[in-house]
Write a structure and sequence with these properties.
By secondary structure, the protein is mostly helical. It has one domain. Helices cover 75% and strands 0% of the residues. Helix 4 crosses helix 9 and helix 5 runs antiparallel to helix 13. It is globular, with a radius of gyration of 18 Å. The relative contact order is 0.22.
């Protein structure tokens, strides 16, 4: 069946809703950790596993509509689920060690990594402008990696490294999702498998880390549910849908709005004011990412 591309306004609207949704992710994670007074890696894994498990269960009705899918599509969705599990395990853990601004800025450097992966995987060339942008982003990352105030970041080097790993794996996750849909999977079938695989991988990890799924305040479970519903089912699914019709680099460029929304919410809710170095580094990094993909967006629209 021939793929019909939705109108531009519809794609832009869905991406806009997705940006608003994922901007709440870091905030909900921080609310959960503050509610339980537990910022350990074990509890971070509880958050990641709970978020994906609830999302997968909410998508369970997709199973009834399943027909025998192409093996290639299943392979891509399963691999995407593996990348998603690593993404959440590392990124959510990073919020226990670094600031919301640093974490969300580093984890949304996807355009650079998508461009590099596409260069290796799809043999797409890297322009001089893209190389300059990558260099700028690396300089910005060095600023962010500098020591931050202890009341905002307890271990910035570890937290920033975990956020960067989260960026690498989420980039692979989006590209694999595009390939799954190109292999004839619907968005519902793809995200159901990807979220379910990620949930299965993550579920035993908190127990291995000595954490538990029970015994938390009732409010904690509300935050888990909201994470599954808003940033996961609305945010992530929106971007998975969009990469079927747009260049993944363009979609990840839009995701760069997440640090702005998350930082504003972080200041309003937690009075978390990042250090000047973090703000400068974030500005340089985002400018570098925008520079790196500007030529890609122009080429896609021409």
């Amino acid at each position: 069946m021939k793929q019909v591309t939705p109108p531009s306004w519809q794609i832009a609207s869905i991406i806009g809703v997705g940006i608003l949704a994922i901007s709440t992710s870091a905030i909900l994670v921080r609310l959960a950790t503050e509610t339980t007074q537990d910022d350990s890696v074990g509890f971070s894994l509880v958050i990641a596993a709970s978020r994906l498990t609830i999302a997968a269960l909410l998508l369970a009705p997709q199973w009834q509509a399943f027909q025998t899918p192409p093996s290639g599509a299943v392979k891509y969705s399963v691999a995407a689920g593996l990348m998603l599990a690593i993404h959440f395990a590392t990124w959510i853990s990073s919020l226990s060690y670094t600031s919301i601004t640093a974490s969300t800025t580093l984890v949304t450097t996807n355009p650079i990594w998508v461009a590099l992966i596409s260069w290796v995987w799809f043999k797409e060339s890297l322009s001089r402008r893209m190389m300059v942008g990558i260099a700028m982003a690396l300089v910005g990352g060095m600023f962010i990696g500098s020591t931050q105030p202890s009341d905002v970041a307890s271990n910035p080097l570890l937290g920033n490294s975990l956020a960067l790993i989260g960026a690498w794996t989420s980039s692979c996750y989006l590209l694999l999702g595009r390939e799954a849909q190109r292999a004839s999977f619907s968005i519902g079938h793809h995200v159901f498998i990807a979220y379910s695989v990620a949930a299965v991988i993550l579920l035993p990890l908190p127990l291995l880390a000595g954490a538990s799924y029970t015994g938390y305040p009732a409010l904690t479970y509300l935050w888990f549910g909201l994470m599954a519903l808003i940033p996961q089912l609305i945010g992530h699914t929106s971007f998975n849908w969009a990469v079927r019709y747009l260049s993944p680099t363009l979609v990840t460029l839009a995701i760069l709005m997440e640090p702005i929304g998350a930082s504003i919410l972080g200041y309003l809710l937690f009075q978390e004011l990042p250090s000047l170095k973090t703000l400068i580094g974030a500005a340089i990094l985002l400018a570098g990412v925008a520079t790196a993909v500007l030529n890609v967006s122009a080429a896609s629209q021409s």
